[in-house]
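Dear colleague,

Following up on yesterday's call, I've attached the two folding results inline so they're easy to grep. Please treat them as preliminary; we haven't cross-checked anything against experimental data yet. The first protein's sequence and structure tokens come first.
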Amino acid sequence: MSSVDAYRQFDPLAGSVLDGRYRVDTLIATGGMSAVYRGLDLRLDRPVALKVMESRYAGDTQFLTRFQREARAVARLKNPGVVAVYDQGIDGQHPFLVMELVEGGTLRELLRERGPMPPHAVAAVLSPLLGGLAVAHRAGLVHRDVKPENVLISDDGDVKIADFGLVRAVADAKITSTSVILGTAAYLSPEQVSTGDAGPRSDVYAVGVLAFELLTGATPFTGDTTLAVAYQRMDNDVPAPSTLIGGVPAQFDELVLTATARDPADRYADAQDMGDELEAIVEELRLPAFRVPAPRNSATHASAALYDSQGRQQATTEHLAPPPVGQVPRQPTRELPRDDRQPVEPEYSGVAGQFAGIDVDEFHWARQRAKRVLLFWVVAVLTLTGLIAAGAWTLGTNIGALI
């Protein structure tokens, strides 16, 4: 999912309210299947992330059924490593998910900013990621699309996996999407390429490829097309990370090679199994604790800055702009005693424009300068008067001696 400059074009969804409850604010990112927005739950006054699906999915009953089922299943997952799902629905032509808003950025954005990571940082990313996947695997859920774009890092250093169930919902609906293939090709397991089947070991394979990328800064397979990238893993093993970059411990080589074995039976059974092995490696190597930094230049941060600037602009200009024709502006309710309901005088916080061809601001500053000049002269006169009085008193006191 690529970041989007919200200033490029007007978004018709911005400012709308989904299902009478969720206000759509600023765009965070967009992809082939959906767009993610910063939003607000008006009922609970809670910031949320809104994943709004494309309208082509609205008319597919099978997709909507699977979409609702997957959303309910993911909403039951309780783990710090999983982005919480709060609600789901459809508004007009747009199915949508309401999720926890993670202020920070994606692992993809962090990789672009900082490049390969040392082993202790890789462990800090993989540990909560595997913890979240382990909870899902125990509940019978498979992610199917583990990749850096779906790993979120908060400003507090929390690592969370997002987008459970969407790939399965799309696949079951028989709706093709080249963007799904494009975003997943580098991390697909061999069985997903050959038969489309996916299980916990498929997620393990994707995490193994992700670990390889974190250590080396690149994915193990490349090609001219997404299909070429996908099919390379059918006949080739993922190489050990240490063959591409120095300083990778042998234990991490073994972790990656086991997770990415072409035969699913040779991999870790699930995320819990791989997580246990990672924990043992951390203890063996005595790796230091590490707080994963959020990317600085992230789409989420950009949307937050835009949202804040829009809020300040609205607060500054809201009372000056005339309401659209036929629309009564909303005003806060003012409660008065029953016997004290007097007409309210209009309030003016400022005046714009010119007077006699001169900017009004010039009058304001001229008044300020005049006040300062007047104050200066008053102080000067008082000081001079004080000096004269002091001189007269001194002269009167000593006049006898002078005579």
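Below is the second protein, in the same order (sequence, then structure):
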Amino acid sequence: MLTLNPYLNFEGRAREAMEFYREVFGGELTVDTFGSFGGTDDTADADLVMHAQLETPQGFVLMAADTPSSMTHHAATGFSVSISGDDEPAARSFWEALSVDGNVTMPLGEAPWGGLFGMLTDRFGISWLVSIDPAPAAS
């Protein structure tokens, strides 16, 4: 079995971002620093996140790291993390929490294909898409 997971890179804010995502989604967060693995000779990098992983009750797995001083940080562009499904209350809750201090680029609203759709960039610069499937037609 293989999995495909978003792996987010930050410039010194990975711990803060992952703790925020744990507040949003719930779940178990593990954080390892460069110092705890002896992954740096630069003491300034010792407390930076080498690897963080959030496993949520919904089965999401989100990973992240900080860029150490020995590497160039490249801001994330050209992708979004997408949340989709039919659990409207949960999706709306995620939307509201992710949008706090972020930038809503398309408000969560009716989509031409049915259901609801919205786009935002959270306070850490990560782009999110939220798509809520339309309710089934009554029989």
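For the second protein, one point worth flagging: Residues 14-25 form the longest helix (12 residues).

Best wishes,
A.L.
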